[in-house]
Amino acid sequence: MNSNIVKVIIFIFIVVFIAPLVLRFLPAPLTLEKIIDELGKAGYRMENLTFADSPANESIRQVSFYIRDAWVNIYEYDDEGKIAKYAEMYKKDPGTILVETWGLAQALGSAPSKNKPERVARKKNFLLVVQGEDTTLLNRIVEVFNRL
Fold it and tell me: What pLDDT is recorded for position 20?
């Protein structure tokens, strides 16, 4: 009987004192605000930061802003299917990548593409789409996003 009381007291001690300490060390959940804060901590200054009243791409929340000349859109989803659909939509197929990289269309007399380079990254329920001329900047923004 005494051993059961000791076990109950130890269990209560663990739940009351040890569990809150362990919970402090768990990472905070990812939110749009945390993503914006981390980009700011990485040294990027965001301009024209706006939360969309009616988010695009079937997302539940969307924030848009500029980092220098790069246009950044971050979408938050509540459905795994929707985020997978839009992540695939933004990816380029291998044929398009080869044609653009080697300049094959221009070699055959086509006009140069007017599409701005873009990078897409997915993290949990968030989709980052960055468009701009400076591909180094785009890659660094994606790196910061992927480290979250």
Answer: 76
